[in-house]
């Protein structure tokens, strides 16, 4: 039985050791640790087979290749497509070279990006915005003309702003996954390359709306949500409905009492694990269509949590983490047997607090 | 015993007839009064005359137009999210074909409202604006109002009139990635 179970390999990322199955990528191992250790990813999307290795946002330094061959890798490697080896030592945010390279990557990605965030509907939940905010510079050095394309309507629901595209290929892989025939791809080379090729045929598919969620920037946007509101003024709520075609698990975005957008649910890495169908996404825009589960958890650093004074949105775990980190166990061997204070039974409170026995709402 | 040099010898001198009638004191008092008739006044008759409030005063909001008279605001909502009093609200709309001379970008604010009862004139909206669109005028105060329905200012009150343009020389304004044209043209 022992040999059937795969041998776990040990990797050290930013000084934190983690055990993963062989074949796992560095990025997945780092995500297992979580937090700041995980490198940013613009093109890699775990649910999409074959994605990754294009944007170079996740470059890390491998200080030791493996236990057998502890030489460092000569160049920075893309962590999303590099599998781990036993005894590998990876430096992510602890390495100065990685951080300066990442700054340059942000600059490269933004060279042809129009930076029309004040207009773009994706602003506030944009991967590129987050990436540039965390790793980039506040100014631009680029003075030349940026490439421009005409905006295109892809079917009745999706709009393509090719100017904003960073060519991550996520939508192409999504189209590959939802259709049998390849109908969606990238045409042209260099800065002339463009998401295209029979794209009108891909949108016939019942799951074509997922390219909107998958897009890390605002290149593919929801036409039913176009310029309706900014994301940080809307309130996301987890909801589900009985859908014959998909899982029906969605996030419903409210403005006041009005549903203005429906998206698939995203996990902490901003990835959709369960794709939803176009009926759920574009046509069910009434509260009566949905069974509300509760407010979506949003990280406190996100702008979506701005001006929403709800306790469940704000995670005050920093102090708790700090306290846990600085906690030292005190070896106290004094007799504590007499410290137990006899608790009054809830029945004793009944005359003064009649609701003391009620279960918590 | 003398403690300080400030002690004064009290004279018990008999006052003259004029002094007994307070004549020198009255003349002295009148002189002071008449002097003030000709002195420069320290107050101003406020509603008719207004003081210069300085170049950094934060007064009436204005939604700027650019050099060609197009509205700069793109309804990005950053002023509204920055506003600590939640006084600003807006509704965005898409620019139609043929409106290129009215609005600068493909999105514009169809409705832009500031509730002047809520506004605390902190100037955070001005700081947040990535398009240099909203400013608080240093030369104009928000007028007094008598009815509560007068306090919500819409675009009619806020958008800059082409006949009355507001120019603020702001040496600190820099080109931002979202507004690269701002100082590029200067150099």
TrEMBL record, chain A:
Q: InterPro entries from the entry?
A: 2Fe-2S_ferredoxin-like_sf (IPR036010), 2Fe-2S_ferredoxin-type (IPR001041), NADH_UbQ_OxRdtase_ferredoxin (IPR054351), NADH_UbQ_OxRdtase_Gsu_4Fe4S-bd (IPR019574), Prok_molybdopt-oxidoreductase (IPR050123)
| Positions of the UniProt region annotated as Disordered | 334-361
Which cellular component terms (GO) are annotated to the entry? membrane
Alphabetized, the UniProt keywords read: 2Fe-2S, 4Fe-4S, Iron, Iron-sulfur, Membrane, Metal-binding, NAD, Translocase
Ranges for domain 2Fe-2S ferredoxin-type: 7-96
Q: Which PROSITE patterns match?
A: 2FE2S_FER_2 (PS51085), 4FE4S_HC3 (PS51839)
- The protein's required cofactors: [2Fe-2S] cluster; [4Fe-4S] cluster
Chain ranges of the 4Fe-4S His(Cys)3-ligated-type domain: 97-136
Q: Predominant location of this chain? A: membrane
Location(s), subcellular: Membrane
Any one GO molecular-function label of the UniProt entry: metal ion binding
The family classification in the record reads: Belongs to the complex I 75 kDa subunit family.
Name of the protein: Fe-S-binding domain-containing protein
Query: Upper taxonomic classification of the species?
Result: Bacteria, Pseudomonadati, Bacteroidota, Cytophagia, Cytophagales
From TrEMBL, chain B:
Q: Which domain of life is it from?
A: Bacteria
Q: Which InterPro entries match?
A: 4Fe4S_Fe-S-bd, 4Fe4S_Fe_S_CS, NADH_quinone_OxRdtase_chainI
Q: What is its main location?
A: membrane
Keyword annotations of the record: 4Fe-4S, Cell membrane, Iron, Iron-sulfur, Membrane, Metal-binding, NAD, Quinone, Repeat, Translocase, Ubiquinone
Q: What is its EC number?
A: 7.1.1.-
Q: How does it sit in the membrane?
A: Peripheral membrane protein
Q: Which residues form the 4Fe-4S ferredoxin-type domain?
A: 64-93, 110-139
* Residues binding [4Fe-4S] cluster 2: 83, 119, 122, 125
Q: Give a GO molecular function annotation for the protein.
A: 4 iron, 4 sulfur cluster binding
Cofactor: record remark:
Binds 2 [4Fe-4S] clusters per subunit.
Q: Some GO term, biological process aspect, for this entry: which one?
A: aerobic respiration
| Reported function | NDH-1 shuttles electrons from NADH, via FMN and iron-sulfur (Fe-S) centers, to quinones in the respiratory chain. The immediate electron acceptor for the enzyme in this species is believed to be ubiquinone. Couples the redox reaction to proton translocation (for every two electrons transferred, four hydrogen ions are translocated across the cytoplasmic membrane), and thus conserves the redox energy in a proton gradient.
Task: Report quaternary structure and partners.
Answer: NDH-1 is composed of 14 different subunits. Subunits NuoA, H, J, K, L, M, N constitute the membrane sector of the complex.
Matching NCBIfam families? NuoI
Name of the protein in its database record: NADH-quinone oxidoreductase subunit I
